[in-house]
Write a structure and sequence with these properties.
Pfam families: HTH_1, LysR_substrate. Belongs to the LysR transcriptional regulatory family. It comes from Pseudoduganella chitinolytica. Strand 7, helix 7 and strand 8 form a beta-alpha-beta unit. The protein is elongated and about 105 Å long. The protein contains ten helices and ten strands. It folds into two domains: about 80 residues, Arc Repressor Mutant, subunit A (Orthogonal Bundle), CATH 1.10.10.10; about 200 residues, D-Maltodextrin-Binding Protein, domain 2 (3-Layer(aba) Sandwich), CATH 3.40.190. By secondary structure, it is an alpha/beta fold. It is about 40% helix and about 20% strand. Helix 1 crosses helix 4.
């Protein structure tokens, strides 16, 4: 059978030795300095030897105390580690956001680092899809929809509007609108036909430039692929300035002339039956700030 002194006395001694102070040990253990002194004195009587040399506002370990302290320190550290290992890990909070593939890759993903820096305890589950998700049954907290609305049965708020203009790689040397007649034009197919969808014909009408069929044309079924083709210097694309803003700023693409034509509006959309959660509110606040900066 182990013969050990009372545990409170051992804890008081270990804390006092670690801090070099009865007062600081008392603050840690939420007792008085007098109580720490009594516990240490009881341990010294139990061992029949002094463990501290008492000085003004300071206590210094004796040789016996210096030999006992690391044993107790390592023991208490081992206790704490074992208890922490046994305790179930707290469940992390998570927010699921849905958006189109182009928006996810070109606008949302590059901004995630700022959210993680502000909220390291919140995970983001980002789901890229060009199909409108069912926010009530698909496990999605927030969707970013692109269009004119309305969105019946959903809570929607405008995030930011969009503008389109001709952009191209600097390698193509595009300088004036007449260059559009000699360079390949890049288009992508809109998922949902709408008379207000930006098209080359609509841009030419806004620019006062007669529309004529280009010498060469590339058509993609995916907007992000059209952006990649423009970056690769394969032609001039009529693209969302919001989605290529980073490329324009970095000089990977150029917009040498206008005008711009209006696109649709990005909306933050949630289920009308959603339950308020702090982590979702944090994600919404982050998206609003990023949209304002856009």
């Amino acid at each position: 059978m182990r013969r050990l002194p009372p545990l409170p006395a051992l804890r008081a001694f270990e804390a006092a030795a670690r801090h070099g102070s009865f007062k600081h040990a008392a603050d840690e253990l939420a007792v008085t300095a007098t109580a720490i002194s009594h516990q240490v004195r009881a341990l010294e009587e139990y061992l029949d030897m002094p463990l501290f040399e008492r000085r003004v506002r300071q206590v210094v370990l004796t040789d016996a105390g210096a030999a006992l302290y690391p044993v107790l320190r390592d023991g208490f550290d081992a206790f704490a580690a074992a208890l922490q290992h046994l305790a179930p890990a707290p469940a992390r909070r998570s927010v699921t956001i849905s958006a189109t593939g182009a928006f996810m890759g070109r606008w949302l993903a590059p901004r995630v680092a700022r959210f993680r820096a502000q909220h390291p305890d919140i995970d983001l589950d980002l789901r890229a899809t060009d199909v409108a998700v069912d926010l009530q049954h698909d496990g999605v907290d927030v969707a970013i929809r692109y269009g004119r609305g309305p969105y019946p049965g959903l809570v929607a708020e405008p995030l930011f509007g969009d503008r389109f203009a001709p952009v191209a790689s600097p390698a193509l040397g595009m300088l004036v609108p007449s260059d559009l007649t000699i360079l390949p034009l890049i288009e992508f197919t809109w998922r949902r036909p709408h008379p207000d969808n930006p098209t080359w014909q609509a841009w030419c009408a806004a620019a006062g430039v007669p529309w004529q069929a280009p010498r060469a044309q590339l058509r993609f079924s995916d907007e992000d692929h059209a952006i990649q083709a423009a970056l690769a210097g394969q032609g001039v694309a009529l693209l969302s300035l919001a989605l290529v803003a980073d490329d324009l700023m970095a000089g990977r693409l150029r917009q040498p002339f206008g005008p711009t034509v209006a696109g649709h509006t990005y909306h933050l959309v949630r289920s009308a039956a959603h339950t308020a959660r702090p982590e979702v509110d944090a994600a919404l606040a982050w998206l609003r700030i990023e949209a304002t900066n856009t």
